[in-house]
Amino acid sequence: MRGDYLNWPRLVEDALSKWGSVSVEGPFENIVVSGMGGSGIVGDVVKLLALERLSVPVEVVKSHIVPSYVSTRTLFVSVSYSGNTHETLLATARALEKGARVVAVTSGGLLERLAVERGLPVFKTPAGLLPRVSFPHMLTGVLGVLDSSGLTVASRAEVEEAKRQLEREAGEIAGEASSLAEFAYSRELLVVATHSPLEPLAVRAKSEFNENSKIVVKVDVAPEWMHNDIVGYEKPLFDEYRVVAFYDPDDQAGRGLVEFMVGEHERRGRRVRVLALRGANKVGKVLYAAMLFGLASVELALKRGLDPAATESIARYKSAAGRIFGTGPLKP
Ligand code: F6R
């Protein structure tokens, strides 16, 4: 899987070659991005990038339930790598019932079939990868759809710059990832700490360590952390943990918040690894963090003698999902 992550600049390039191929006509009052796990994180990152750029709200749906305000004025982006995820299919069907304009991002499956039947635009992502590895392709695809629909959250030039950065720095990132894997290889609980609005990157780190390394991870986000979690660290029943903390060096308050968190952990004698995100722009910082945590989580799996690609329990859940949601098994 290491090679798959190191191949990300090629994935971004492929998605960039399709920039402008899918667009939707507005106007829109809101954008809803639906998806689970490795597909759902695309929505979180789009919301992060939209924060200072868009005047319409972006909501992320990581379940089968869609917000009541979804209407004909909603751009609903349905992201499912396999195209066969129950929650995403149910949310998409509900959004269609409410008259939303739906765009599908998928490698195939039932989502693609639904899109073809209903004449919906589709951004195709290449099959044969794991959803989490396909992240930069799906993200670039959604950024391209938004840009071509007059809802730019990142320009093509910014994504191109981010791709060049990944190309230049892949070797260095792999080195940092090995050292991070070394740090995370311990019997202590791994805590990933950051500041708003970078929560999606901490969630991505958590999910990568969950799925690739098969470990439990806690996510802490400042400044909300200062208003509850901080007290939980005063007298925890289980205090064997270590922290990976990261911040955006261009965000002075963010850096200050993370430094405060680090100080609290260090005065309790915990081990902390602090990272500053690198990148010429926000997309670059997102891809840097995602590649670093992706590679580190693969390394940790390999150190433990585990297969980073295997996610047995997700498959067990997926085979029960039809019963849980009352839809029966999917019929691809
Ligand atoms: C990531 C992964 C899962 C899936 C999730 C949803 O590699 O395997 O997190 O992304 O189960 O499935 P898809 O992405 O196919 O909709």
Shape: globular
- What compounds are bound to the protein? fructose -6-phosphate
Helix content: 40-55%
* Class inferred from helices and paired strands: alpha/beta
Folded structure, characterized:
The protein has twelve helices and nine strands. The protein has helices at residues 2-6, 8-16, 37-50, 86-97, 109-118, 135-148, 156-184, 199-211, 229-232, 252-267, 282-303, 312-325, and strands spanning 30-34, 58-61, 74-80, 101-106, 122-124, 189-195, 217-222, 241-247, 272-276. The strands form two sheets. A five-stranded parallel sheet has the order 2-1-3-4-5, sandwiched between helices. Helix 10 links the parallel strand 8 and strand 9. The longest helix has 29 residues, at 156-184. The model has no long low-confidence stretch (mean pLDDT 97). It binds fructose -6-phosphate. Fructose -6-phosphate is lined by residues 36-39, 80-82, 85, 88, 130-132, 211, 311, 314.
Task: Give a brief outline of the structure.
Helix content is 49%, strand content 15%.
Please give a handful of descriptors for the protein shown.
332 residues, alpha/beta, 5-stranded parallel β-sheet, 4-stranded parallel β-sheet, 12 helices, globular, binds fructose -6-phosphate
